[in-house]
Design brief:
Elements (H helix, E strand, L loop, with lengths): L2 H13 L12 H4 L7 H7 L2 H13 L8 H14 L2 E8 L7 E6 L1 E3 L5 E3 L3 H5 E2 L19 E5 L6 E5 L2 E12 L8 H21 L9 E14 H4 L3 H6 L24 H16 L4 E6 L5 E6 L2 E2 H21 L2 E4 L13 E9 L3 E2 L7 H20 L1 H6 L26 H12 L34 E3 L4 E3 L9 H27 L4 H16 L11 H9 L9 H4 L6 H9 L5 H54 L7 H23 L7 H27 L12 H6 L2
Parallel strand pairs: 1-8
Antiparallel strand pairs: 1-2, 3-4, 5-6, 6-8, 7-8, 9-11, 9-12, 9-13, 9-14, 10-11, 14-15, 14-17, 16-17
The chain binds adenosine-5'-diphosphate and magnesium ion.
Length: 723
């Protein structure tokens, strides 16, 4: 079948498809956490002492008593077997954005040849997948490929039911046999512990005698595109790169703003309900769903949870979105920029810190006391984001997210903080040394405190800021839709830990010198604003003025590409940050630089190869067919004495020529070798990418000239609007 026939067939099969069968999800109470080995289920089936010991580890971070593992393992297995499981899997999160799993059977053959299902504490607590094929950034050579997974008690085990069977899934960390973290969960747990320790120091200095362990929370808003699978299967770029490398913008894009929050198409709603039902069964609190800005783009947001659990759940959400889309004859694209010219997809990571005794520490509250505490924590975030802004840029640096950052739709690549006018005003006053009051509904309480009382009102929203305060949390808006949220959470927790430690040192020194608490807080916050106030920006982050001002006047970095951003991970001050807080050793940090730069280079090179092959084998032949039809028609007309001129032919011929010349150039460049990842990344960013764009511009121009019935690739119009 020729290319254009495939395209026509794709359209026909979509238009003729039978609607997905509707089935309304059951009652929430019946679905909720049905497939999770919850604390409540553990309490039912475990001896009291074992349950208490586990609960202590889960709730207050007490060390795991390994002796309880055997009892838990049997209970967990019995529960999973009662749900039909034959296999179990340690799930872990390697240095890609994916989830890895290795399945093992419960089967155990007895000496008499019979089998029983067996699962011991030893295999619950520790697994040993052959980890040699996971990125390790040079930590291991293949001859010492051993990797261990270890049970993370704080994230609940669950069963995953697919058409192919039921598997018990156990969230785990993944480390090398020398103990180095090879995954995204280990540093997340460590960063949380570091933050908790530093926050506890500060809270005690603020006068609290009872301070429960502090945990970070995360609520991630996931954007995604849905495209019919019939289209995706005839677009090698969508299949292999997750984005279109060619495609002329449709006459109608998102300019009418008629998609955002519009009526959800029926087929998509059936899909969403199916996704939500699966999420509820896994105890994932899906809460919000709506159409997004671009046609074909949607969002799902769960309610926030403890960061470690939210991060595991985020991975599951991505897995379930993809798998469910498939069942509905669609492909779910989590790429940050599947279609040029319409909005890309992000994953806003809402983040806060809090505990059982003081509550949300980023909630302004409504008493002066709580206000002081809030200002200390908020000030610590301001200091951290200024001091380590380039790190925040580096942890969201991927080849795909580079298409969003800095473009006029997503936050800029320059990291700044949006506080809102009211909070900004308070911090401005702090900087000037005297707080007179707060704007709006705020009540002054000068007699008690130099710090004002102000209402919770989140103030305005700013969609152009990469890092925005939104009432009782920060929203890191620059994270990419396909990314694991662990990296950004690790960075935020670690920089906060560093700032809180600094504040605790300052407070201790001032208090022991006899300075009164409020005066000490005021002077520390004043210093924070003097040193770090340059990071606060409430204006339009998309504007050219900001890009200029940020760099020239404020001294902020504009790390435009991943090639510019990733080397930050090698800087001494970043190495010190992670090792002082005990989150990543220098070796572990370096391995991340290695792994992520390799991923960047590979994804751009794969795309470049695809550009070459699609241009040569799909677009060039279509254009040639068009040219030969045109020439034949022109010469036939010529015989009749009609001369239509040859402009049409020349135009197409010139485009083909230019495209093929650039394709040859790109092909050549792909054979180059480099001595460092830094050089190689710069080459990808500044030579390969622009050349790929150039080839695309010729191809997209051809799409506007070549006869539609000869054009082999499903068009933007079709992919975005036909559902
Ligand atoms: P918007 O699109 O207006 O930013 P959404 O309601 O879509 O808001 O998403 C807000 C997200 O922030 C939700 O996941 C919500 O649970 C989360 N969130 C709310 N409070 C907190 C908090 N204290 N810590 C972390 N996330 C939070
Ligand atoms: Mg949001």
């Amino acid at each position: 079948m020729s290319g254009n026939e495939l395209r026509a067939q794709a359209i026909a099969s979509i238009t003729n498809r039978n609607p997905d069968s509707h089935h309304l999800p059951g009652r929430l109470e019946d679905l909720w956490a049905k497939d999770v080995f919850t604390l409540a289920k553990m309490q039912e089936c475990l001896p009291k002492s074992v349950f208490k010991s586990l609960q202590k580890t889960i709730k207050s971070g007490a060390p795991l008593d390994v002796s309880v593992a055997d009892v838990v393992a049997v209970a967990m297995k019995d529960w999973a077997v009662s749900k039909g499981a034959l296999y179990y899997s340690h799930m872990f999160y390697p240095l890609t954005n994916a989830t890895a799993e290795k399945h093992d059977g419960f089967i155990s053959v007895q000496s008499d040849g019979s089998v029983i299902s067996e699962f011991s504490g030893k295999v619950l607590v520790q697994g040993e997948p052959d980890g040699s094929s996971f990125p390790n950034g040079g930590i291991r050579s293949t001859f010492e490929a051993r990797g261990y997974t270890a049970w993370d008690v704080t994230s609940p085990a669950f069963v995953m039911e697919t058409e192919n069977g039921v598997t018990l899934c156990i969230p785990t960390v993944f480390v090398s046999w020398t103990g180095e973290a090879l995954d995204k969960k280990t540093p997340l747990l460590r960063s949380n512990a570091a933050m908790s320790k530093a926050a506890t120091r500060v809270l005690k200095l603020l006068g609290h005698t009872e301070v429960a362990p502090v945990n970070s929370s995360c609520g991630a808003e996931q954007e995604y595109f849905l495209v019919d699978a019939n289209f995706a299967s005839v677009r090698p770029d969508l299949l292999l790169a997750g984005r279109t490398l060619f495609g002329r913008p449709p006459a109608k894009g998102q300019q009418f703003d008629d998609h955002y929050f519009g009526v959800i198409p029926e087929r998509v709603q059936v899909f969403m309900q199916d996704v939500e039902e699966k999420l509820y069964r896994l105890g994932i609190p899906a809460k919000t769903r709506h159409n997004e800005v671009a046609p074909g783009q949607f969002e799902i947001a769960p309610m926030f949870e403890a960061a470690n659990v939210a991060s595991d759940h985020q991975q599951l959400i991505m897995t379930i979105l993809r798998a469910t889309a498939k069942q509905h004859g669609m492909v779910c694209l989590l790429h940050e920029k599947p279609f040029a010219g319409v909005n890309g997809s992000g994953k806003h990571v809402n983040w806060s810190v809090g505990n059982a005794t003081q509550g949300n520490l980023l909630d302004p509250g409504d008493t002066p006391h709580a206000n002081a505490q809030f200002l200390v924590f908020c000030g610590a975030v301001i200091r951290g984001v200024h001091k380590y802004g380039p790190l925040l840029r580096a942890v969201i640096a991927t080849a795909s997210n580079d298409h969003r950052l800095g473009a006029n739709e997503a936050p800029p690549a320059i990291i700044s903080i949006y506080l809102g006018s009211q909070l900004q005003d308070v911090f401005d006053q702090i900087a000037q040394g005297e707080v007179k009051g707060s704007q709006g509904k705020g009540v002054m309480n000068l007699g008690v405190d130099t710090l004002p009382v102000f209402p919770k009102d989140p103030g305005d929203r700013n969609r152009t800021s990469p890092f925005a305060f939104t009432g009782n949390r920060f929203e890191f808006r620059a994270v990419g839709s396909g990314q694991s949220v662990a990296g950004p959470l690790v960075a935020m927790n670690t920089i906060l830990a560093d700032s809180l430690d600094w504040m605790a040192d300052q407070l201790e020194a001032k208090l022991s010198a006899g300075v009164d608490l409020n005066a000490a807080i005021q002077s520390i916050l004043q210093e924070v604003m003097h040193q770090h106030g340059a990071i606060v920006f409430n204006g339009n982050g998309y504007s050219a003025e900001w890009h200029e001002m940020a760099v020239k006047e404020r001294g902020l970095l504009n790390l435009r590409t991943t090639a510019d951003a990733l080397p930050v991970l090698k800087e001494k001050y970043i190495e010190d940050l992670f090792s002082q807080e005990g989150v990543l050793t220098p070796v572990e940090l370096h391995s991340r630089f290695e792994a992520y730069s390799e991923q960047y280079i590979q994804s751009i090179e794969v795309e470049a190869k695809l550009v070459v092959s699609m241009a040569k084998t799909i677009i060039y032949p279509a254009a040639m067919r068009h040219l030969s039809e045109l020439s034949l028609a022109l010469s036939n007309l010529g015989e009749l004495g009609i001369d239509l001129g040859k402009e049409g032919v020349t135009l197409v011929a010139d485009l083909v020529k230019s495209m093929m010349a650039s394709v040859a150039e790109l092909s050549d460049l792909l054979t180059k070798h480099f001595s460092t990842p830094e050089e190689h990344m710069q080459f990808c960013a500044n030579t390969l990418r622009p050349l790929m764009d150039k080839i695309r511009s010729y191809a997209d121009a051809l799409e506007g000239e070549v006869a539609d019935d000869l054009w082999p690739l499903p068009t933007y119009q079709e992919m975005l609007f036909i559902k």
